[in-house]
Amino acid sequence: MLSITQKPYYELSNSFLQSLARAVAILALRHEEPSSEVKTELVEAVRQYKRPEGGFGVDHASIYSTHNAVQALSFSPSDCLAGVSQWIRRCEWKTGGFSQTPMNTPNYLDEIHRGLSIIRAVNERPRYPQETASFIGQLQNANGGFRRAADSGISSLENAYYALKAR
User: Fold this and answer.
1) Residue-wise over 68-95: b if at least 16 C-beta within 10 A, else e?
2) What would the pLDDT profile of 1-24 be if each residue is shown by its tens digit?
3) Residue 139 DSSP label
4) How far apart are CA 96 and CA 118, in angstroms?
5) 16 or 67: whose pLDDT is higher?
6) Residue 45 and residue 91: Cα distance in Å, rounded?
C-alpha cells in the first residue's frame, strides 16, 4: 500500500501538495475530520517540502507550494507552519500584492489570492490592503471581468473568482 508520506516524483511535487490540499478541502466541505493517524501522515507528507526560508517547495519555497501546504495543514496546525508568516511577508509588496517568491515582483492575480489566503491562514492581516485592492482594480477589464496580469489578458471566470475572493 502506498503511504501519503512517500515522496512523489520531483515534477509532481506541487501537484502532490495541491492534491492533499484539495482532499482536506473536500473533507471540510463534508464537515468531516481526518483521523489522528491521517493527520499525522498529512503533517509528515507536507513536512518533506518545508524549506529553511520558511515556505514550502522542492528547491525553494514558492507561493503556490506554500499555499497548498498551508491548506493541507488546515486540519492539523503543527510546527510545520513556523516561519511561514515571515516568509510570506517577504513576498508582500508595498505597491500591493504578493509575488511568487521574495525575489519577484507582483504580477499575477492568482499569486495575490494565494498570498492573502496564506496571510489569513496564519491569522495575520496584509500590511498594504489599500494598495493590494488598487492593484486588483487595475486588473479589471472593460467588460467587468478580470485578467491575470496587469499588462494584458482576457477576462476569465477563474480570474474573477480570485479577484472577488481577494477583496
Assistant:
1) bbbbbbebbeeebbebbeebbbbbbbee
2) 345 555 544 445 578 899 999 999
3) T
4) 15
5) 67
6) 24
Q: Which of 47, 63, 62 is nearest to 4 (CA)?
A: 47
Task: Please give the span between the terminal C-alpha atoms of the chain, in angstroms, as a whole number.
Answer: 43
Residue that has been written with the C-alpha cell 482532499 in this structure: 23
Query: 16: buried, middle or exposed (CB in 10 Å: 19+, 13-18, 0-12)?
Result: buried
- On average, the pLDDT of the chain sits at 89
Type of residue at 96: G
User: b/e for 39-62, b at 16 or more Cβ within 10 A?
Assistant: bebbbebbebbbbeebbbbbeebb
Q: What are the distances in angstroms from CA 21 to CA 25, 45, 155?
A: 6, 12, 26
User: What are the residues whose beta carbons fall under 8 Å from the beta carbon of 167, sequence distance 6 or more?
Assistant: 133, 136
- Which residue's C-alpha cell is 511568487? 100
Distance from C-alpha of 156 to C-alpha of 3, rounded to nearest angstrom: 37
Predicted local distance difference test score (pLDDT) of residue 10: 44
pTM value?
0.88
